Amino acid sequence: MSNRQRYRELCRRVSLPLFSQDWWLDAVAGPDAWDAALVRDKTGIVASVPYVVRKVFPFRLLTMPRLTPRFHIWMDPPEGQKLSSFYSFEIRVLTELVEDLPRFDRFHQKYSYALTNWLPFYWRGYCATTRYSYVLPDLSDLDSVYSGFRENIRREIRKALRAVQVEVTDNVDTFLDLGEMTFSRQGLRPSYSRQLVRRVDLACAERDRRRILLARDNAGRLHAALYLVWDDESAYYLLGGSDPELRTSGAASLLMWEAIRFAAGVCGVFDFEGSMIEPVERFFRSFGAQRVPYFGITKNRHLFKLLNF
Q1: pTM of the full predicted structure?
Q2: Which of 36, 65, 300, 305 could bond to 29 as cystine, CB 3.0-4.6 Å?
Q3: What is the pLDDT of residues 101-116, one digit of tens each?
Q4: What fold, for 139-267?
Q5: Are 37 and 48 in contact (CB under 8 A)?
Q6: What residue segments make up the domains of the chain, in order of their start?
Q7: Contact, 115 vs 297, CB < 8 A?
């Protein structure tokens, strides 16, 4: 049995974060373009992490697929361990996961908040960059969550409530049209293809793991759109967009609040998915969420070192 097959079986047995589930990997990368590193002992699999293989002749890249902010390194330590014993277990299985990776010319992966120790990567020549997301870790008291918003966000929500109505739709193309307007305003092309988003949308819809929100005014104009996905533990702001000519209506803030309210009913955490872009970071920070660090780990070999990628 291949590692990929074993990993699929693991996904049936344990609750992994959304972006590391096998069906998500099938959607964003293709069923033959990803695999997993595994650590096994006599009890079975005790650690795993997926990766995506991309070939750009003559290079072999282990990289992140589109629309996937992070992978999760899953570990199953023995129960009742002392902290020192857990650290020993962690270092051992992380070392073995690194050794189980295939040959590559460039490695670039981002890992979930659960990874707080990247020493086994460092000891083998990898580098790490600290990145940040914003998370609302407890949605049980929405009044308290709302009171944590900055006043300008609450003001925008009140303004938007007078200007637009929130709709739920299954039409992903309506969302995509508005998303393209957002990129066009910045003179950019979307970082994802419509075909990719449709594949992801189909996979999520089949499992009831997505919600598309729209903000529309009485004249029928769409002001903003938001694409939310979730797993058993957390909801994630995946994509958003707004009409450049209607950005002052506050609709983007209202949709974020509606997404948070919805998330409170399906899981306990809301993850803004972070951004290293200053204006986006400032917007997310305004919702009173906790800043959470995570690691982006890289390693270049052969010609990639000379090319300084």
Answers
A1: 0.93
A2: 65
A3: 999 999 999 999 999 9
A4: Aminopeptidase (3.40.630)
A5: yes
A6: 3-131+293-307, 139-267
A7: no
Nearest to 113 by CA among 296, 255, 279: 296
**Domain covering 3-131+293-307 assigned CATH 3.40.630 in the classification:** yes
Q: What is the predicted pLDDT for the residue at 184?
A: 65
99-118 residues labelled b (16+ CB within 10 A) or e (exposed): ebbeebbbbbbbbbeebeeb
What was the pLDDT predicted at 129?
96
DSSP 3-state assignment of 139? Answer: coil
d(CA 9, CA 13): 7
DSSP 156-202: HHHHHHHH-EEEEE--HHHHHHHHHHHHHHTT---SS-HHHHHHHHH
* Residue type, position 199, single letter: R
Radius of gyration of the chain (CA): 21
CA distances from 149 to 106, 156, 158, 215, 256 (A): 41, 11, 13, 20, 11
Pairing outcome for strands 59-63 and 74-75:
unpaired
Does 170 have pLDDT greater than 80?
Answer: yes
CA 18 – CA 142 distance, rounded (Å): 24
Q: Contact at 8 Å (CB) between 243 and 223?
A: yes
What's the pLDDT tens digit per position in 17-31? 999 999 999 999 999
Which among 238, 241, 255, 237 is positioned nearest to 27, based on CA atoms?
238
